[in-house]
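Hey, quick one: can you model this chain's 3D structure?
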Amino acid sequence: MSRRAAPKERVKFWRDPLLNGLEMLHATYVNYAFSRHAHEGFGIAIVESGAMEFAYRGEHHIAPAGSVVVTQPGEMHTGQAVLETGWTYRTLLPAVSWLQQAATELSKRSAVPYFSSPVIHDKALNQQLINLHRTLETSSSSLEKESCFLWGLTQLIHGYASHHPQVETIGKENLAVQQVRDYLNAYYTRNTSLNELAELVNLSPFRLLRAFKNQIGLPPHAYLNHIRVHQARQHLAAGESITDTALATGFADQSHLHRHFKRMVGLTPGQYARGCHSRN
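Sure thing. Here's the predicted structure for all 280 residues.
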């Protein structure tokens, strides 16, 4: 019987200037072990497969696949594999100000969130943060990245910070939501940020997110993609190429148009264009 080859170690690291230099990592480690170190901001690790063990605050912890690890700013910790096959994980290293903003959005308290237990055993949260990480890795939309990142942090804090801040109820923000809708309809080709929209209607970013989603049924970035796909249909029906259509409607490139178009219309842009110009 042949032995299965051990997985290879691989590391992808990047920073996002839009998110205040947020550092992100997607890695598989097998033999590598982190020496004692600390992060200036928070450390959020999302374990995809395998398991990692680490020393933190005088204790040893094991984080299996499906868990999330949160370390406080300045707290020393290590990291190494539990199994011979290593572990694969994604990390977010947000500045303290990001989680402080998220906590303030939830409860109007500006205290830095505190997580008493570093390992969170919550597969649903793990998957949500994996999806968030993938979005931050692949999206070219400032609005989508800011919205998803802030929403993900608030869910983490609301569910697992020591004081469990309660989300304040919000009433209807009809005028603000309509203003944002009008703006997105008028300027759908722009790479608009969440902060720009929030300043436009004098609401906090999180309040705008919640109000818009409650009243429209979609967050602002998804609504913007809806507008762009609607416009793309008109361009394709008029005989424009897929490449020109993508550029004319605010998509980063043809592949982004293809993904969102197929998701909403059920057809690829090419299928739609051919259908518009075929003769029965």
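One thing worth noting: The two ends are 60 Å apart (CA to CA).
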